[in-house]
Each structure stands twice: as C-alpha cells, then as structure tokens.
Amino acid sequence: MTNRCLFIHGIVGAYLVLLMTGSASATDPQRPNILLFYVDDLAYNDIGCYRYPGDLVEGQLAEDDAPAPYPEKSAYAAANQASEIIKGKLISITPNLDALAQQGVKLTCYHSPSSVCSPSRLALLTGRTPSRFGLGGIISNKMDAGIPSRENTIPEMLKSVGYRTAAFGKWHLGKAEQHQPTLHGFDLYEPSSGQRETELLRLTQKTMAFIEKPHDDPFFVYFACHQPHYRNVAHPDFVGSVDKLLGKRRYLKGDRTTDTVEISSDYHDVVHELDHRIGQMLKHLDELGIADQTLVVFTSDNGSWSNHPKARQGVPGISGTGYPYRGAKFEAYEGSTRVPAIVRFPGVVPKNAISSEPVTGLDWWKTFADIAGAEIPSDRELDGFNVWPFLTGLPAVTSPRPFVPHDRGKGIVAISDRGLKQFSNRLIDIGKDQSELNDVSDSHPERSIAMKQQMDKTNARIRSDSPMLEPATRQSIITSIDQPYLNIASGETSSFTIAMNVAPDGPLTVNFHKRSGVESIELAPTSLTFTPTNWRSPQRVTVTAKIDDLDGCAVYVAEAANDIPIREIFLRHRNH
C-alpha cells in the first residue's frame, strides 16, 4: 500500500508540499545528509589553516613563513592568533577545522552575503541578497518584523524532497510567532539557552541526538551557534586553554578590564572550544558510519567585531581578525565579509584542495537544491549560483559566479571580480592593496567602467522585486493539525480544518493553489471563505490520494490577504 502523509507547517498564507521520497534515505548517495555550520563573527584569520601567509600542509610551515605587515588602518586585533610557529612547526588552536580542510576544499575567496548577522542569515536561507529585503542591520527583539513567510527557505526546499530538518542556536530573523524557525521549514528548533559557559556543549549534544535518531530520510542540520561572538565565554574546561596550548601567556597582568566576562575567558578560548565541539560532531558522524554520506559545510556569518569600542581601546580578547584584509563587521571592506569556508564530502569533493574562485553564502540555496534533486522556484529570482559542479570538478572547473556583491541592505555598494574591487568612486587591487586605500581606476579604466555598469545593473534588478521584511500581524490562519504529518493511504482520503485566529473586517477568502509537483493528491475545496460571524468555526479540507504505485510531491499555496501570514503544508506519500 502506498502511504501518504500530510505535514502542515505554519507561515503567512499556505504552501502545500507533497514530498517525493522514492527510496531516499540517509544512505542514498543522490540525497546526502547536509550539516551546515554557520558560526558567529568568526573572521578570515581565526582558524589555523587560514594563517597568512602560508598554508598548513601536514602540520608544517616553511621556515620563511613569517607574518606579512598588517595592512595600515585595518582591523585592531593582532594577526595570526589562532596559531603559533614553535620550532618550525605550526601549533593551531583549531586542529579539527584544519583537518576538515585537508579532507575537503578550503575556499579562500568566500564571502558572507552581508557584514551583519541578520541580513547574512536571511540571505543564506533564502538565496536572495539582503537589499531585496531592505535589510542592512540587525533584526532586534524590539522590531515587529522578520523573515517574510512567502520566502522559500533552504529547509523548506529540502523538506519538499524528503529531508528532516533541524536548527540549533541563533535565529535572529524575527521574534513574532509567524517568524519562528519551525514556521519556515525546520521540524525542530533548539534555541540558545543563555547559559554561555555550557551553551556549546549543550547544542552539540542536542545536535548529535538529532543526527543519531534512526530514520529513513536524510537530514539537514543548521548549526548556527552564537559563538565565538564577543561576550560569549568558553566552557570552564577551555578557559585559558589557548595559553596552555601555545605555551605562553598572551595577555600581561593588567591589560584586561575589570569586566568579569573578559577576565574569565577570551575570544580565542571560545574558538578553541568551538573547534573541539565541531570535532565531536564530526567524530559522531564517523561512529554512526554516515560520514561518507554527509556533506559538511563550515563558514561564518560575517567578519570580526574588531571595530568594537573596547577593541579600539586596546582591550585584548574581544575578537579575531580578517588579516590580511582590512575591515570588520558592519563595514564593506574585504575583511568584513571574506570569511573561512570549508566543504567536505568524502569521495565526491576532492581532498586537500584550495580554491581562490569566488563563492558566497547566496550560493548554497541552489547548490543544496542540486545535491538534493529539488526544484528551483519559477515564481521568484534567486541571487546565488549552483557551485556544486565547481566544487566537485576542482581544479578543472571554475566557479560560475561572475563577481562578488558587497550588499549593505540598501543596495550593492561594491563588487569584486577576481582581484579587483569596484566601489562607486574607486577601484581597488585587492591582491596588492589589502588596506583598500589606493584607487587604480586610471590603470584599468575599461574594467572600472564595466564593473560600475554591472553594479548599477544589479542594483536595478534587486530593487525592482523587493519583498521587504514582513511586519508582525495579529491575524493568521490556524489549522487542526498539531503534529508534523497526517498519514493518508493510496486511494483513500483524510482531512484537516482551517479557521482564523481573529475576526476579519469583512469576508475573507483563503485560496489553495498548487505550486509544483504531481497530480496524484488533490484538495477540496480549493477555497474557503470566512466572515466576521463564522471565523471561529473550523472549515474542513479533504485530501484525496489517487491510486498509483508512485511516490510523488507537489506544492500547494493557501493564502489570504497579503498581510496575513500563510500556513505551509507538506504532503508526503511513500510506496511501501
């Protein structure tokens, strides 16, 4: 008998997704598990294998591998604090991430979508640049706005092809109910607890518990911890650990403030613990026998907070650094968005590879869709590129991305194109001028003009289709389904009910329409009308599964007025 199940997921209006699963499982090479580490404020120079200059090769560095002069007027933190050369050998505070890079691809020209937390996360999850949302800063808890419900996020896309999804840690995309992770594609959300000393340990344990749960379906894990962002502290086992590892006391007595947080722990101790926790999760994949079936991506949401007022005052232990690049978070310099990025998929992505080809956080949406066999939506424009053929084809294949946009929320303020970076009023040679001080447009007039035109063209395109953030609203669609799935057998029917949570001002119609997928599951009726008198009364929707021997998926969208949050509904069937 072919079983079909219905999953209803709340958001503004309503998507209805029938998941085609076929024989997909965590061991299906066509649909691997995906483990995405999206850490907070970790900068380019903050892990051992991104030491500059010189790359870690089997733990050794060349004898003449001395730090280059720090770019003038750049960040405030010292360079290369994530490692130390001791007797010609590199000692790193991030051995697990260094090993991960040796097992996969290290990207040296990877950029986060923004230099600020919220827009970077919104862009990564939607595949759409922050200026489409008019978002250049943080979505604080004081704001009554958040991620638009009509956006199609990475977890929503992956659920449409049978993935189970979970998010751990930081969200930062809206506090209202309609903006919560579980209403945007995540089956499970484990938020941060606020217990900073034990937070990484707790989230690591929760993540491993989710991963090890027996299941036929592949998983997508979004591990978005708050660490190593300033004011987080290390677990007591890691306080002072970097000094011990490097065999020296990095801070002299009296160079700290009286702030107990700063005295108890420092940024690099937190990075050291973060590396250890990631190592625990990677080891867990090995122990479960699924490392070879799991794509691992590690990166950061933006550059360092080395422009924090305390860091400017010389207080140590506040942040890392984007060395050798100028810039920090909230800015548009290279070090503001050029961050570490490592990709591992044993037997598919080449080992110990280093690429300077451009990739950005906007590219993961289409890339994961390709890996999972999901559809690219036709009702919206995505700003990323599918970099999977590039990652798996190194070194012969180049990145499809023509340039890197530097988005500040109100438009693209600069673009980078393989060594040159064009602002509105100057052209920078990043390879020679990492401080971004010298205009070389007179030496490259044609390139400068062409890059300006590309920037203008991009801004015109992204501003013409701006959905903006979604305001919080009192009115929403509610459903009778209080569990992830409603099972329905082939040739049979089931049903659920829809109602409104508050009375509409007048007649309000909720429409259901199919977005994509198979024809074998149908809804009836295709619309419901609520009035100021019947809004409390649940109205029934019947789901019919036709008799066939095929698994399939389809997406329906049920939506009312534009300012009313949708509810997202996933339908799923299997041929057992």
TrEMBL record:
<keyword id="KW-0732">Signal</keyword>
<dbReference type="InterPro" id="IPR024607">
    <property type="entry name" value="Sulfatase_CS"/>
</dbReference>
<protein>
    <submittedName>
        <fullName>Arylsulfatase</fullName>
        <ecNumber>3.1.6.1</ecNumber>
    </submittedName>
</protein>
<feature type="signal peptide">
    <location>
        <begin position="1"/>
        <end position="26"/>
    </location>
</feature>
<keyword id="KW-0378">Hydrolase</keyword>
<feature type="domain" description="Sulfatase N-terminal">
    <location>
        <begin position="32"/>
        <end position="373"/>
    </location>
</feature>
<dbReference type="GO" id="GO:0004065">
    <property type="term" value="F:arylsulfatase activity"/>
</dbReference>
<dbReference type="GO" id="GO:0046872">
    <property type="term" value="F:metal ion binding"/>
</dbReference>
<dbReference type="InterPro" id="IPR017850">
    <property type="entry name" value="Alkaline_phosphatase_core_sf"/>
</dbReference>
<keyword id="KW-0106">Calcium</keyword>
<keyword id="KW-0479">Metal-binding</keyword>
<dbReference type="InterPro" id="IPR000917">
    <property type="entry name" value="Sulfatase_N"/>
</dbReference>
<dbReference type="InterPro" id="IPR050738">
    <property type="entry name" value="Sulfatase"/>
</dbReference>
<dbReference type="Pfam" id="PF00884">
    <property type="entry name" value="Sulfatase"/>
</dbReference>
<comment type="similarity">
    <text>Belongs to the sulfatase family.</text>
</comment>
